[in-house]
Amino acid sequence: MEWVKADHGFGPEYDEESRILILGSFPSVKSREQAFYYGHPQNRFWKVLAALAASAVPQTVEEKRAFLHAHHIAVYDAIESCVIKGSSDSTIRDVVPADIVPILDGSRIEGRIFTNGKKAGQMYKKYIYPKTGIPSRDLPSTSPANAAWSVDRLIAEWGRWIDPAWLKD
């Protein structure tokens, strides 16, 4: 794997009805290819959120986008660009943080910010929290690299912090 300077490649997904914001670290190679979030077929992100929302797991990018809007979920990443090897968070360097202020200003998130994995949490605390002053809740990563956490365990832990009522009208 070679080092590459990578840009995020696609913007945040949110609207004025979004109630929670989930930040990843940086899109995987698969996600950058699809130009949408959590594109690796083994990432458990969509399974976890679908379980919390008591909904079917979205499959296509169009279904995923519709799912996020229907359940008032905003998604973005803490990093806008970086140097990285493949999709490995542990190799991220030369970070340019994302600007989430427009998301916060254009939605109903009201302080409900969650990070998907340790690297996302670290990047949020280092680069974004000083600008927003809004604390985030670190959640265990849904990445297949986080094999210590089963889907059921992820659903239980994410469900401790994300109120299913926020995901309904």
Describe it for me?
The chain has 169 residues and is an alpha/beta fold. The chain is built from 6 helices and 7 strands. The longest helix is centred in the last third of the chain and has 15 residues, at 118-132. 37% of the residues are buried. The model has no long low-confidence stretch (mean pLDDT 95).
Give a topology summary:
Elements: E1 3-7, E2 20-24, H1 29-34, H2 45-52, H3 61-70, E3 73-77, E4 79-85, E5 93-97, H4 101-105, E6 113-116, H5 118-132, E7 137-139, H6 151-161
Parallel strand pairs: 2-3, 2-6, 6-7
Antiparallel strand pairs: 1-4, 4-5
Task: Estimate nothing, just give the exact number of structural domains.
Answer: 1
Strand coverage percent: 15-25%
CATH architecture: 3-Layer(aba) Sandwich
The CATH topology turns out to be Uracil-DNA Glycosylase, subunit E
Sequence stretches where pLDDT stays below 50 over 5 or more residues: none
Structural class: alpha/beta
Give a short synopsis of this structure:
With about 170 residues, the chain is of the alpha/beta class.
Identify the notable features of this structure and list them briefly.
169 residues, 20% strand, 33% helix, alpha/beta, Uracil-DNA Glycosylase, subunit E, four-stranded parallel sheet, three-stranded antiparallel sheet
